[in-house]
Amino acid sequence: MGNWIVRKKIEAKDGVLNIEILSSPDGKLFRYFVNAWTPVEEAEKIYHPDGGYWSCPEMSGLYGRIQDCERDAHSKLSLLCP
Q1: CA dist., res. 58 & res. 16, Å (int)
Q2: pLDDT tens readout for residues 53-71
Q3: Residue ranges per domain, the chain?
Q4: Residue 22 — very low, low, confident or very high, per pLDDT cuts 50/70/90?
Q5: What torsion do the CA atoms of 25, 29, 34, 35 make, to the nearest 10 degrees?
Q6: CA dist 73 to 6, 44, 58, 70, Å?
Q7: How confident is the model at residue 1, as a pLDDT?
Q8: How far apart are CA 31 and CA 24, in angstroms?
Q9: Do the beta carbons of residue 72 and residue 63 sit within 8 Å?
Q10: Taking residues 2-30, what's their average pLDDT?
Q11: Among 22, 4, 28, which residue's Cα sits nearest to residue 73?
Q12: Burial 9-23 (b: 16+ CB within 10 A, else e)
């Protein structure tokens, strides 16, 4: 089993959210990952010198067509960033 490949990245205007659209190694399945930037307090910067960290609070199900995956990813981003 190989690694999923990032096909497209959709960035929110504020820069604290993005969605990556990936394809399976064989290119037959697609899914998206929501990535969120979490800033940290000054005391935590020793562990996160960039001032925060990225996490993946949500992952979609599987899609058979990249167009369907991308459409739903755009819908998700508009719900998260109205």
Answers
A1: 14
A2: 999 999 999 999 999 999 9
A3: 5-80
A4: very high
A5: 0
A6: 14, 32, 11, 5
A7: 55
A8: 8
A9: yes
A10: 93
A11: 22
A12: ebebeeebbbbbbbb
